[in-house]
Amino acid sequence: MKTLSIRKSLHYSFWRHLFFSTRCCAITLIFVLYSGKGVCAESPFVPIPEAKKPLYQFNFKNLFYSDDLARQNDLSELQILRARLVALKSEASTKPARLLEAIELKQRMGIIADRLWAYGGLRLATNTQNTVFQKEAQEGEDARSDFDSSTVFVQSIVQDLNDEKMNEFIAVAPGLVRYKFLLESWRRTKPHTPPEAVEALLNRLALRLDPFRSPFYTLMIERSPDATIDIGKRQLYVTKPGDYAEIMRSEERALREAGFNKRMATYKAQGDLFAFAMYEKIRAANDVANIRKFANAIDADLFGFYLTPEVVDTVLAGFRQNASLAIRFQKAERTYQQKLLGISSSEPWDLDARPSGAAEPRFTIENASRLVIGAAEIFGKDYKSELNHLLDPLNGRMDIVAGPNRQAGDFTWGAYGPSWVFFMQGYNGYLTDVVTLAHEATHAVHFRLLHKSGIPWYYADGARYFTEGVAKVNELLILDYLFNRARTQAERLFYLRQLTSKLASVKFTTMYWAAYATSFEIEAYRRVQSGAVQNPANIHEIWAEFGAKWHLDFDRFPDLKYTWADTHHFFDSSRYYSNYLFAWVFALAVYEKIQSDPKTAKKLVGLMKAGFSNEPSTLLQTHMGIDLSDPKALERMFAMVEKKVTEFERLVLE
Question: Taking each helix axis from N to C terminus, what angle separates 538-550 and 271-291, rounded to the nearest 10 degrees?
Fold first, then answer.
């Protein structure tokens, strides 16, 4: 009994020190990390110094075009190359040298079209109301659409060659060997390719056949009714992720609850419009997929990713069978928050709040950059060199200063070559921003590494769960890095919570969130196709159905069913979440190997440099010795999650 009393006393002192100290303590909780100098949490925190903000904007002149004349030259060059390519059409099907020339001309056109598209899209992201940027973005989209439709005949020619003829062409024109996997992948799609005229039309109309994209979503968010909460003199929007996160961090509990309820009410108020848009988007995508002889748009996309519906369904079944891990984590997290805030019970609006005496760590952009570099040290000098180049603001490759009229979301974009950049709606210095930086920086490094390795444009893009998986490895590594450098038990618990949350919570960008969002998209597309869903309002019920499996709150707050519309990807990156799902399976397989063999990290860089020159499963097996279709891979993944959840539960309940 005496031992128990001492344990209880220590337990009380620990939580009191962690949660109710009013002093500047624990450097990673109260101070800005890694700077060598601390800033008391009571002092104003400045994520990006005012004098340095101009550096954290894209340098379009260095990265894309020195002036608009250079952009116009690209538009003109694209048309010249288009004419040259069309002139080859009659001979490319009979003369191997002409086919090789056509393939390489198409590649040159693709590089230019992608550059125009990325330039216009990135300019518009920095100011969605700028009419010049709107025009450039539209011209970029048009250039990309015209490229797709005007070059589709090259693929058709390859599809019409039988095996004997294909081998004959390669023997006569050895340069075709470099594009062997490209030729195979084009021929693989033949059963799903309609007549050339139809395919060209579908490509030309691709953007119009994908309605209600980012511009629609932006307009809907801007017109959200009664969507603001006042904090002091500031007006924050519950429909803007950064603002909502700040509301949920407020020390005022009533304000947090009001924000939580207002967010549900706002999405409910526009629920009919969001559901109608999603329903029509699904119908259009399914119709296009049917023309290409797929059961629905989901199956069409999975085919492109070299995944099958059966494999995806098996993985999702695994998440349903292990739903208890997500529920256990949420319960432990609420116990953590209950003790943290000194409240009798923890509600969903309490999960991100902290008392001022134990404020959430904040990181200046300089400190965040150093942490990301430190966590990535194991990848070697080539990776580090590229990472340093991105994070150096003098290179103009990050646009992260908050401001009016900026596009929602954080993303990496660029064109084949050195122009890959990172856009963030606004860097605020929270841990989530640091993790986002680690994730998106990986994409920028990845695409420049494969370009420097001489990978052709054709192989510079592929199964996105590869690129997303590599990025998610870095999410786990940055949290691991912080956890292992924590100086106190309090800090270790804080970072363990964040790491375990990535694996077991149902919050945006986490692994179980990917399973949730993937389940929602797959079922929505399948049920609309089958006729099981004929009323747009049923879209909300699908979200609620899967939410009830993994989320604690759907029974108490039924209007959460409208909040699926908070996820912009469903509109501007449709059917992308299956990539995130398999990215997590990929990431945990790699992360597990890194724990036992740090050399795995450099093998991962080798995979990045290889581009997409073979089937994803072959590349993964060759470079990493990983087979995602192996049932044991899933077993090991959930075992790792179980271990982290159990560790978090133990520390919270001590």
Answer: 100
What are the tens digits of pLDDT across the range 19-61?
333 333 333 333 334 333 334 445 789 999 999 999 999 999 9
Structure confidence by residue, pLDDT tens digits, 416-455: 999 999 999 999 999 999 999 999 999 999 999 999 999 9
329, 341 in Cβ contact below 8 A?
no
Strand 398-399 and strand 421-424: pairing?
parallel
Q: Is 620 exposed, middle or buried (0-12, 13-18, 19+ CB in 10 A)?
A: buried
DSSP category for residue 318: H
SS (H, E, C) 365-387: HHHHHHHHHHHCHHHCHHHHHHH
pLDDT of residue 8: 32
SS3 258: helix
Structure tokens at 499: 């790491």
208 burial type by CB count under 10 A (0-12 exposed, 13-18 middle, 19+ buried): exposed
Residue 259 in tokens:
């924000």
Whether the per-residue pLDDT at 4 is higher than 60: the answer is no
502-514 pLDDT tens trace: 999 999 999 999 9
Residue 154: both structure tokens together: 């090259």
pLDDT value at position 135? Answer: 98
**Residue 413 phi, psi dihedral angles, 5° rounding:** -150, 160
**CA 87/CA 365 separation, integer angstroms:** 52
Split at pLDDT 50, 70, 90, the class of 356 is confident
pLDDT value of position 42: 55
Amino acid letter, residue 69: L
3-class SS at 230? strand
How far is it, in rounded angstroms, from Cα 66 to Cα 68? 7
Q: DSSP assignment of 368-434, as one string?
A: HHHHHHHHTGGG-HHHHHHHHHHH-GGG--EE----TTPPSSEEEE--TTT--EEEES-----HHHH
Q: How far apart are CA 266 and CA 243, in angstroms?
A: 14
Contact 497, 648 (CB under 8 A): yes
pLDDT per residue as tens digits for the range 284-295: 999 999 999 999
With b meaning 16 or more CB within 10 Å and e meaning fewer, what string describes 57-84? ebebeebbbeeeeebeebeeebeebbee
What is the DSSP code string of 30-92? Answer: ISPTTSSS---TTSPP-SS-GGGGGGSS--HHHHT-SSHHHHHHHHHHHHHHHHHHHHTHHHH
> pLDDT (tens digit, 9 = 90+) per residue, 380-422?
999 999 999 999 999 999 999 999 999 988 999 999 999 999 9
The predicted pLDDT at position 284 comes to: 98
Judged against a pLDDT cut of 50, whether residue 155 lies above it is answered with: yes
Assess whether pLDDT exceeds 80 at residue 200: yes
| 281-355+500-653 placed in CATH 1.10.1370.20 | yes
Q: What is the pTM of this model?
A: 0.87
Phi first, then psi, for residue 399 (nearest 5°) are -125, 100
Q: Token pair for residue 228?
A: 């603001």
Other beta carbons within 10 angstroms of residue 532's beta carbon come to 11
Structure tokens belonging to residue 552? 């604690």
Contact (CB, 8 A) for 285 and 304: no
Residues 144, 117: contact at Cβ < 8 Å?
yes
Q: Residue 486: what residue type?
A: A
What ranges do the domains of the chain cover? 55-193, 281-355+500-653, 365-491
Angle at 580 between CA 574 and CA 585, to 5 degrees: 150
Domain 55-193: CATH superfamily, name plus number: Oligopeptidase f, N-terminal domain (1.20.140.70)
- Please tell me the distance from the alpha carbon of residue 18 to that of residue 340, in angstroms, as a whole number: 8
